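#structure-requests
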Amino acid sequence: MSKVLIKVTALSLVLVLFTIMIAPPVTSQVVVPREQTLVIGGAYWEPPKKWNPFNYPGSASGIVGLIYESLYIWIPIKPAEERFAPWIAAELPTWESPTSVVIKIRPQAKWWDGKPITADDVIFSFYEVPRKVTTAAWAGVRNYIEAMEKIDDKTVRFKLSTEANYADFLFQLYEAPVLPKHFLGEFVDKYGDELTDLGKWPIVAPDKDPKNIIGSGMYKILYLGDDHFILEKVENWWGKEVFGKLPAPKYIKGVVVYSNQVAANMLGAGELDWSNFYIPGGPDLVKRGAVVAFYKDYPFYLSANVAFLFVNTEKEPFNDKEFRKAMYFAINVDKLIGAAFEGVVIKSNPVGLLPVWEEFLARDLVEKYGYKYDPEIAKEILERAGYIDRDRDGCRELKDGRPFRMSIIVPYGWTDWMFAIINIADDLKKVGICAETMFPDFGLYVSMIDTGEYDAAINNFGSFAAPSPYSLYYWAYAATPGIWTGNHGRYVNPDLVALIEQLGRIPPLPEYKEQMRQVLREIQKILLEEMPALPLWYNGYWFLAVTKYWKGWPSQDNPYGVPIIWNGQWQHGGLLVLLNLEPVVVPTPTPTTPSPSPTPTPTPTPTPSPTPTPSPTPPPAIEWPIIAGIIIVILIVIGLAMFLVRRRK
């Protein structure tokens, strides 16, 4: 071998070693036993790497509920008087007056580091954080929680203003996380509003490394990847003393899936245990016994929220109530339900009140306005309002004669909504409103709604059941426009906003119920007259489950909670599901070989502690891009060596 070739070969080896040294660290995939793992999906549409309790609506579902917990849970399928249930709290709130509320904390409640959850933590979470992290998801409580008093280590008093938003207060009692002051206090003081910036969170967060998190919930983070995460059961969770057991699944694996059809395939293959995706063909799967649903027959799913067709009222002609009314009369929701949802959703009333609030529906007003599917009425309204097809091309022009086309958007992969807007566009076309459908990816969909760069969109993100319809109506019509805040139609009506705010200020006490009914009636009058957004159907919770590995799912025969994993809704019953599930396949113990130890001097035998299942060993994942890079470097160097050798000859 020539000296040149020897030198070049040596250089090659050096370059290879250098390439390996500068390569990014090898990531570890965690492999967990399938029979000990609950696989969930339907809440994760992007890499689940954001676990920020201050901005939980923009973070991975489970940061509140599984890791940090709330004072209460709220179960909408229970009778009204049974919906609130204590979680960290020891009992229901004691209302000393409309402005004074006392809450006791369970004596067993503690953080993962063994420190008790105290009144100081509750005061920190509900009084200090909202004033120092003013952009926190629940920071609005500072507008009506005037003071908080520590009665003792496990008892706290909330002092509310006379203009308190009681509806929001009740909502936050089961929605807002109780946070550890001893862990997060200094970071709240140091960073303030930066803590809700998801871009800055990985830099400033005290728990950017999941091993550093000090939570109180039944699961902790074990692994975070681009397409899934794995949580591991907390063996010393305080709830064992209260509920008498720990959750059966040792691991929870949350999967990221970008298409309902892919989720359906996973469910059919037994790769998904608990689905809150809309699954095409779901009714057939239930009938064949492949999966279970909440109901054994139609509609199969519980009603979860209201799907609105929002129109951008900052644009013409959507700023005209007559045009919006015509759109409502033009859409055949019953046909849409059959075509897009296989008949598993229920048509909404025209004011959007969910079944949980049905007692407040002003039926006489609904009948008076007579909203229904009637394309002839839609055409009459459009003609009277001046929207005429002057050039006979099948598309009505604006009042001044300018041509008009509109688009409707939903996220790509949300097949139920995709089929729904195809049907809506067809119906609108039949009355001369020319509409096209657009399916941007989820990130672009979010951006378009955030910026108002759209004509119409289906959305339901904040329309969930809550103790008061205030939450629905504030989100739909009064909030600052934004994808996570609401008011996607950018509708402005001071009279409606005033009524919604009045609704929120009604104390949740029996003597105020009739006042609530009257305010809701006035709100419904405006909605029926203005039709600012079009409530079309009640989306379902979309719960389907495979019983291969786990049993004990809630059902119409055993309605202990809502089986839901969506963000902010573990507290609707998902936590109870974890406590009620039982394994179908008993896991095979992992064999271990203990090291011999000296025989100790006999001592009194203590109560044996349960032996934890050995932690899974993470085998290194193969980094193919790195290997490919090394091979390319070798080939280049060898080629260079051959070239130099030939040149010397």
